[in-house]
Amino acid sequence: MSISKVYFVSGIDTGVGKTVATGLMARWLAATGHDVTTVKLVQTGNTGFSEDIAEHRRICGGIQLPEDSEGLSAPQIFSFPASPLLAASLEGRHVDVDAIRQAVDRCAERREIVLAEGAGGLAVPLTEDVLTVDLAASCGWPLILVTCGRLGSINHTLLSLEAAKARGMRVAGVVWNWCEGRDPAINADAQATTRRYLARFGFPSCIVEVPRLDPSGSYPSIDFSEIFA
User: Fold this and answer.
1) What SS3 class is residue 189?
2) In Å, how far are 32, 115, 122, 217 from 64, measured between CA atoms?
3) Contact 114, 37 (CB under 8 A)
4) Which of 38, 73, 133, 176 is the Cys-Cys partner for 122 at CB 3.0 to 4.6 Å?
């Protein structure tokens, strides 16, 4: 298995389930013998902690990691739930892109694999000049795109893949989350179309499906090896 050091996990938009997907991938990687940690590049809507990192840890068994107490797993936190650029400006601050890079690099020095989760979708602005996808592309992090088969998702999925292609990014694969109220025909067509465009753009036609999760908190056995191969 040939594995990159850092993977950039992004979604087609806010609320598509990339935090759960990131936690599930970390859980599988740890269960298959890999030393893995997760980083939330920028957390908004929180004060003093990252709820997304807390969710990753909960999915992985509830164990806190040294990177959490050191601030490396959530290097930038802003209280207003908005884009990082807006949330930072409302506090009279700015998003420190270098601090984000340094935190990820320090995690990568310690761990075999780092899953770096973005905020919202690829084109979410970090600064006036830098989108989240620009940071990931400049660092050479392969993209894992989280999407689903709801009505309208295919547009966002293909635009996200096109943005990655335009920046010369590698795409490791797509995580296809279950979503409430999806139409089976729309879901099947969106998935088939996504596979076609993955191949057209020169990316692996790799889609890993995440089924509906049990509300009790138990997790299904999901094999992510195709993404990390």
Assistant:
1) helix
2) 19, 16, 28, 18
3) yes
4) 133
Among candidate residues 181, 179, 174, the one with its CA nearest the CA of residue 160: 174
One-letter amino acid of 228: F
The model carries a pTM of 0.96
Q: Count Cβ atoms below 10 Å from residue 74 Cβ, excluding itself.
A: 24
pLDDT digits (tens, 9 = 90+) for 54-113: 999 999 999 999 999 999 999 999 999 999 999 999 999 999 999 999 999 999 999 999
Q: Tell me if residue 200 falls in helix, strand or coil.
A: helix
Cα–Cα distance measured from residue 181 to residue 183, given in angstroms and rounded to the nearest whole number: 6
Angle ∠(105,12,177) on CA atoms, nearest 5: 95
Q: What are phi and psi of 119, to 5 degrees?
A: -105, 125
Let me know: does 5 contact 37? Beta carbons within 8 Å: no
Catalytic residues, which ones?
40
For residue 62, count other CB atoms closer than 10 A to its CB.
Answer: 8
Task: Write out the two tokens for 106.
Answer: 């320090």
